[in-house]
Amino acid sequence: MAEAKKLPVMDIGSIIKHQRNRYPVLLIDKIVDLVPGERATGVKCFTYNEWYFPGHFDDEPNVPGFVQIESLVQTFILTFLCKQEYAGMKTNFVSINNIRFKKKIVPGDVLRIEATLKNFKRGIAIGSAESFVDGEPACSAEFVVAVPDILDQFKPKP
Amino acid sequence: MSNLENYVAAFTSTFLVDESVLAKLKYQDIAAWDSVGHMSLMAKLEETFGIEMDIDDIIEFSSFEVGRAILAKYNVNMA
Questions:
Q1: How many helices (H) and strands (E) would you count in chain B?
Q2: pLDDT tens-digit profile of A84-129?
Q3: For chain B, domain boundaries
Q4: How far A144 CA lies from chain B's nearest CA (Å)?
Q5: A83 and B CB contact within 8 Å
Q6: By the 8 A CB rule, do A125 and A89 touch?
Q7: A152 touches chain B (CB under 8 A)
């Protein structure tokens, strides 16, 4: 008996509701596993219709590094933006460290992204994410991300 | 290291400034002490002194000198 198809924990509608990235920079398709405040697993399917393939490169289309990093961090931020109190808040990069690109990603590839939130306190999120294509490591990075709406609550008085 | 030395080190390592400017340093005097830098400094101080600061104290923490008085409330004395 075939294994029942696993439904996404967050479909594209739910992703749009919980974070602010939109076309052409919304770079995850669904979340298939989620433990709020701890971890999220996202999926991004790349087709030749992606806007960056004609330019990167016309004779050898592959996913630019910045797109891979954005896919990782967009999965990462949903580890906390999935919570009702933070849903829809904008985020900013504070730092990206230890980036590793291990595999060329081409049209037709499906990227699986596993993100872990190590610490979230007063609007500063610290964690990491790594991605895989067919089980092979593709990209990994460590992130520090700020949530300005929360930071503003802790700013010193002028 | 003394509490004062640790306090100074938290500022210099977080904001990459010289110790000589700290006495008069206030929030937003330098680009590094913005809202993100403020949270980084609070995290560094909490880690260094093993404390957890109240929200009101984080908001009141508006300068190097004011911070010394606030930390005294957590028994971090720098006499």
A1: 4, 0
A2: 999 999 999 989 999 999 999 999 999 999 999 999 999 999 999 9
A3: 3-72
A4: 10
A5: no
A6: no
A7: yes
